[in-house]
Write a structure and sequence with these properties.
Layout (H helix, E strand, L loop, with lengths): L11 E7 L6 H13 L4 E6 L2 E2 L10 H12 L5 E3 L2 H4 L3 E2 L1 H11 L4 E7 H5 L7 H7 L1 E5 L14 E4 L8 H9 L10 H10 L14
Parallel strand pairs: 1-2, 1-6, 2-4, 3-5, 6-7, 7-8
Helix pairs in contact: 2-8, 4-6
The chain binds adenosine-5'-triphosphate and magnesium ion.
Magnesium ion (MG) binds next to loops.
Length: 209
Amino acid sequence: SRSAGDTGRRVRLGVMGGTFDPIHHGHLVAASEVAAVFDLDEVVFVPTGQPWQKSSRDVSPAEHRYLMTVIATASNPRFTVSRVDIDRPGLTYTIDTLRDLRAARPDAELFFITGADAMAQILSWKDIDELWSLAHFVGVTRPGHVLHDLGRKDVSLLEVPAMAISSTDCRDRVAEDQPVWYLVPDGVVQYIAKYGLYRSALPGATESQ
Ligand code: ATP
Ligand code: MG
C-alpha cells in the first residue's frame, strides 16, 4: 500500500511563464484548465526578468510583477510563484527557466504552458532542441490568435475558456482611467492603484508581443 507521499508517480508540475505586467484572468484560467486536464499537482508561475522579446518597451519592475503574481495566486493551494527568472541577471530565456526548475525539482515532470501567440514563436526560441527534452509543452487557445499544430508528440494543444484579456489592454485601460475590475483579480486592481502603476503609459510605448 502507498502513503500519500508515495503515490508511485512523479510529481506533475505545470510551468506558467509570463511577464505578468499585470497578471490577469486569462493567465489564471489557462493554468487552472491545464492543471485539471493534465492532472497536475502544482502550477508554478514564473514572472520573467527582462523578457528578450520585450526589450523595446519598459517593463514594470520585477518586484511589482512578482508581488501581483503572488497576490493573484495566493488563494489557490496548487498555484505557487517562483523567483528563478527575476533573480537571474540578464535577459530571460525559457531554456534557463526550465533548467533552473529542473535543478530545483529534479523529481518533477514539467509541463510548460504557453498561449497560442507564444506557441507560434516557439520554433525561434533559444536552444529549442534542449527545450523539448526538459518539458512537455501545452499550447492553449487564446482569442485573436491561431494555435498552430507543430506536429510533435511532446506538444499538446488544449482549448481553454476564451478570455479576451491581455496585459497590454489592462495597462492601456489604467492609463486611460478605465476600470480593470474583473479583468484582473481584485487584489491586483488594488495593488495597481496603491502603487500608481501604468498611469504614465505613453502612446506607442505599450505594444504587445
Ligand atoms: P502583454 O500584452 O504584455 O504581452 P499578455 O496578456 O500577452 O501580456 P504575457 O505575460 O505576455 O501576457 O503572457 C504569458 C503567457 O500567458 C503567454 O504564454 C501568453 O500566450 C499566455 N496568455 C496571456 N493571455 C492569455 C489569454 N487571455 N488566454 C490564454 N493565454 C494567455
Ligand atoms: Mg504577451
